[in-house]
Amino acid sequence: MIFSLHIQAHSHPAMLEKILQTTRVRGFTIRSLEVKNDAVEQLLKVHLTVESERPQERLVTQLNKLGGILELTALHAVADPIPAVARTARNVSLMYPV
Amino acid sequence: MNGAEYIVRKLMSEGVDTLFGYPGGCIMPLYDALLESPIRHILCRHEQGSAFAANGYARSSGRTGVCLATSGPGATNLITGLADAYMDSVPMVAITGQVPTPLIGSDAFQEIDMLGMSLPVTKQSFLVERIEQLPEILDQAFHVAREGRPGPVLVDLPKDIQLATLPERTLPQPAQARPRAQATGEQLRQAIELIEASRRPIIFGGGGILLGDAIAPFRHFVDTTGIPAVFSLKGLGALPGDHPRNMGMLGMHGSVAANQAVQEADLLIAVGVRFDDRVTGKLSRFAPHARVIHLDIDPAEIGKLRQADCALAGDIRQHLKALAIHLEVGDWQAACRERLARDGFAQPGQDGITGPHLLRQLSALTRGQAIISCDVGQHQMWVAQHYAFDHPRKHLTSGGLGAMGFGLPAAIGAQLANPETLVINVAGDGSFMMNMQELATIGRYRLPTKILILDNQALGMVRQQQAVCYQGRYSEIDLSDNPDFCTLAQAFGIPARSLTDPDDLAYAINKLLETPGPALLHVAIATEHNVWPMVKPGDANDQIMTGANP
Ligand SMILES: Cc1ncc(C[n+]2csc(CCOP(=O)(O)OP(=O)(O)O)c2C)c(N)n1
Ligand SMILES: [Mg+2]
Known about the structure:
The structure holds 2 protein chains of 2 kinds. In chain A, 20% of the residues lie in helices and 41% in strands.
C-alpha cells in the first residue's frame, strides 16, 4: 500500500531524523519526501509518501506518539478503498476495527 | 547562576535524591556544581553500571532514575542501559556532557553525536543549543520520562552551556499532565458483553499493570470476575504467588498449564502487554480461539501484533474498574486449577542442587518479599518460574532487551532506593562477569545487597538452545575456567562462600541472608540442566516441549 502523511512538528534538532528513523524501523519505504522548516514559527513541515505491506495504522500510531509531533494527517492512496483518516496529536482518538 | 547550578536546582525540585554517574571533561562543570548540593552521587565503576543502577532505582521505586556521563565514551557506555529502559518502559533521564557548541561538528576530542546515537533507544532526546532553552528542556525531559508510557530521555549538554549564565530567578516549571484519551462508554459496554458471553476467559497481564499503577484495581478485577490470569515475565507479582487465580508465567518458558489455558481460551483480556514473541510463540497460532480485549495506555501497542476485537486505549486503572463484573465461570476455574496442579512448575525430581531447588528455597525463606534483581539466562527463567513474587516492583529483570550484566548494578540502584529492603542479585556466572566491577560500588557504599551466583560453568541459555535446536553442537558456551568467585568478592571486601553439599542448601541461603552488609553465595550447579518446559523459537506455544534433566 502507498499512502502519504502530512506532519507538523516542533523543529527540534533531530526531529526529522526521528521521523525518518521511525518510518524505516517500522518497515515503511519512503517514496518521496518534502520538508520545509519554518524558522519564524519554529515548525517543521513534512510531506511523506511511503510504501509498505504493513498496515498504515502501524506507522501512524508510532509517529503519533513521538515527542514534538503537533499534527499528523494520513491520506490513503487513491486506489485504496479505506477512507482518509485525520488525527491531531493533541487529541488522540485512534479507532481500531472491531 | 550558571547552567550547571541550574541543573542541580532542577534536580532538587524534581525530588531527585540520588544520581548515578561517572565524571569526565565535558561534564565537569556539572560535577563542580554537585559539590555544593545535598544530592547523593553514586560513583559506579562503568557508565553501563550507572545506567543500569539508575534503571534499577527507577524500577524498584517508581521514581525517575537519573544518570550522568561525560561526552564520547562515557555517553556511549550508557546506551545499553537506556535501551533496556526503552524496551521495558522505565522512566529515566540521562544527562551527558557534550563538547562546547562551537566545536560540535569538528570531530573534537570525545565528540560523538549522542543526540543521533540515542534516538532509537530513548523516548525522546534533546540537545541544548542555547542556555535559554535549558529550563524548558529539563522540564520536558522529566515530564516525558514519566508521562503516559514511561521511558528514558537523554539530554545532551555542551560544556559551554553548563557554564553560561541564567538569570538568578529562573525557576523550574514542571509540565502539566495532559488529559489522556479514554475508552468510550460504548467500547466498555462492548467489552463487558464479550466478557459476559465468554465461557473460557483468560487474563493475560503484563508490565503495564505496574507501570499504570494499577495493582489494586487489577487484583479487584480478578477477584470480582474470578477469571484465571497468566502473566508475561514483567507481569509476575501482579497477583500474589499463592492467589487461587494465579496461573503464573506463559510463553517460551511458561508452564504447560498456563500455555494450554491460553490456547483453549475463548476470550483473552490483555492488560498492559505488547504480545512479545517470547510470550506468543508463533503469533498466528497464539490463542487461536480467543477474541481479544486489549487494555493499554499506548494506542500504538493495540493491534500492533494481534488484532483486538475491543480496544481500550488509555488509563488501565479506570478501565479495569469499569470491567469488574461478577461472572459465573466456576467450571473453567476448576479446570484451570486442576491443570495447574498437574502441569504447573514443579520441584524437579532429582537430588542435588538445581536452579529450581535454590529459587524455591529462596522464595520460601524470603516469603516472596525480597527485591530480586536477575541477570539474563537460565537462572533468570528459574527466578520467574519458582520465585513467588508478592509484587511486580520486586522483580527486576531485563525483559525486552534481555541484557546480561543488568543484575548487579540494578540491584545497587534498588538497594539505594530501598535501603531497608532485602535486595538480592540472582546472577549467572556469565552475566555476573559483564558488570562485576560494580562489586567495588557495593564495597564502597557498604550496601547490604546479597549476591547469589548460579554457576553452571556455561552460557547456559545459549547452550540449551544449541542442545535443542543445533543438535548439541556447542559453540563458545564453555565457562569452565571461571575465576574463583569467592576470592574475587573477597578482593572487594565482600564476604563470600561456596555451597557444595545439597544438605546445606537452606543453611547456606539463610547464612547469606543473615550476614550483615554485603555477601555473596556461590553455588555450582550442573552444566547439563536445562529450563523446562520450552517452546523453541518460532514454534507455536502448543508445540511446547516438556523435557527432563538428567
Ligand atoms: C549482553 C548480552 N550478550 C549476549 C546475550 C545472549 N545470551 C543470552 S543468555 C546467555 C547466557 C547467559 O549465561 P549466564 O549468565 O551464565 O546464565 P545461564 O544461562 O548460564 O544461567 C547469553 C550469552 C545477552 N542476552 N546479552
Ligand atoms: Mg551460566
